[in-house]
Amino acid sequence: MVHGGFPRCALCHCVTVVETEMVSDFKIKSQNSNLLALNSRLPTIFAPMQKVGILGGGQLGRMLLQAAANYPVETFVLENDDECPAAHLCHHFSKGDIKDFDAVYEFGKNLDAITIEIENVNVEALEKLEAEGKKIFPKPSVLKTIKNKILQKQYYRENEIPTAEFVITKSLQELDSKKNFLPAVHKIGEGGYDGRGVQILETINDLEKGFDKPAVLERMVKIHKEIAQIVAVNEKGETAIYPPVEMLVNPALNLLDYQLSPAELEKNILWKVEAISLTTVRNFKSPGIFAVEMFVEKNGDVFVNETAPRVHNSGHHSIEAHYSSQFDMLWRIILGYPLGNTDAILPSIMVNIIGADGYSGEVRYEGLEEVLKIENAFVHLYGKKQTKPGRKMGHVTILSSEKQDLLHKSNIVKRTLIAKS
Ligand code: AIR
Q1: Are 419 and 383 in contact (CB under 8 A)?
Q2: What is the pLDDT of residue 44?
Q3: pLDDT score at 192
Q4: Is the whole-model pTM more than 0.85?
Q5: What is the domain count for the chain?
Q6: Based on the domain organization, do 236 and 377 belong to the same domain?
Q7: Residue at which a domain ends, from 181, 197, 219
Q8: Residue 68 domain-assigned?
Q9: Residue 257, SS3?
Q10: What burial class does residue 183 get, using C-beta atoms within 10 Å of its C-beta: 0-12 exposed, 13-18 middle, 19+ buried?
């Protein structure tokens, strides 16, 4: 594992003596217990610089770091690829495997707090770090439950949270004996994300497409709407919820196509959704940001699909469309500041820019100038060097009080801004 050099300015990436002096000055201050006591009484004036690490360096880490620039925090990123989207925005980059015990433990042992931007990390190392007094957002126990789809579904069952009926399969052979459960969705227990590790099994002819590993076989829900709600929990257990968003999925890629905020839901369904997402998250008993993905059936029944214990694609619009974004909110939680305002400034639509079919290699963006001309359209390109079909390369958020305007502009964006090679 190679540790990065001097602290860098997170905005212009310069290595400055002033920055270095500031950091060591903060170190001296935080070693002084009198000052620390004073700091805890006057947090906004004498807030000590905290060292916070992020496991994973993709687009979620990148946007989290953009928000970090507003707070007294020294940021660290652990990721295998030193050209990853977050590498150039943190103060310290460490090259290493987030799934490796030693890499995660070494990375975390000198930090104050650690968070994740992808679930597939070494939880045992986080448990050891937690036992040694490091703050982990979310708690490793929650991560353990959520990162394994089998444990996650069992958690919903145990906590009486409505979720689609399911059985567990350990191998393809076992899957073969569950023919009467079709049509169903087969989800691999560990390691899948962004549509990977999920297979729709309509008929017995599809059974061979299933996973020969421990997995969940979930009865297909007749989806009327697919929604998601971001819930923030601080260390005192206080919560704040963002309005639920409505997702439209590209069925071919099993990826989010565009997302409308707020979701159009009748009042009684909205209340049900809020109650379910709050119950889901509160029972984890962990601070952090959580995204609860749910299905709404035509008859008004609501089922939890899955929960992510981190900042999430369904909260990207909050950067421009809400007073406090999901990324801003996570820093407030980690650094112990008051929760932010989750109200929307305006309704919005978010379009994912995903790698176009048939193109793999160094990315080039077609239509960028045209999209940048659209009023109230905010472009985010993630800085990934390589594109491939289906890869999340960026997103665009559009704000407007008129739904027709949102739909119209989002279609232009989808047609115009293309990630090719
Ligand atoms: N991510 C994490 N879980 C789900 C998603 N989409 C984000 C994280 C991660 C990145 O996707 O930011 O680091 C990985 O993207 P890619 O394209 O390199 O596979």
Answers
A1: no
A2: 53
A3: 82
A4: yes
A5: 4
A6: yes
A7: 219
A8: yes
A9: strand
A10: exposed
User: What CA–CA distance (Å, rounded) separates 65 from 73?
Assistant: 10
Cβ–Cβ contacts within 10 Å for residue 92, how many? 19
394 CB near ligand 1 (under 6 Å) = no
CATH of the domain at 122: 3.40.50.20
Residue type, 387: T
Residues paired with 341 in a beta bridge:
none
**End-of-domain residue from the set 99, 119, 137:** 137
CA distance 301 to 107: 44
Query: What pLDDT sits at residue 319?
Result: 98
User: Is the domain of 312 the same as that of 374?
Assistant: yes
Q: What whole-number distance in Å separates Cα of residue 77 and Cα of residue 80?
A: 10
C-alpha span between 168 and 162 (Å, rounded): 17
Q: Give the pLDDT confidence score for residue 46 in this predicted structure.
A: 66
Q: Which residues of the chain have pLDDT under 50?
A: 1-40
Q: Clarify whether residues 241 and 349 are in a common domain.
A: yes
pLDDT of residue 1: 34
Task: Please give the pLDDT value at position 399.
Answer: 98
The confidence score (pLDDT) of residue 77 equals 98
The contacts of residue 204 (CB under 8 Å, 6+ apart) are 179, 182
CA distance 160 to 150: 16
Are 183 and 252 in the same domain?
no
Give the three-class secondary structure for 286: coil
Which candidate, 318, 305, 355, places its Cα nearest to that of 66? Answer: 318
Mutate-to-test residue for ligand 1 from 54, 55, 60, highest number of ligand atoms within 8 A of CB: 60
The response to whether residue 311 sits with its C-beta less than 6 Å from ligand 1 reads no
Give residue 361's pLDDT. Answer: 98
Any atom of ligand 1 within 6 Å of the Cβ of 194: yes
Residues 40 and 27 in one domain: yes
- CATH number of the domain to which 345 belongs: 3.30.470.20
Same domain as 364, residue 258: yes
| Cβ 56 under 6 angstroms from ligand 1 | yes
Domain residues for 71? 50-137
Ligand 1, atom 13, residue with closest C-alpha:
58
Asked if residue 390 has its Cβ within 6 Å of ligand 1, the reply is: no
**Does ligand 1 come within 6 angstroms of the Cβ of 62?**
no
Residues 81 and 199 in one domain: no
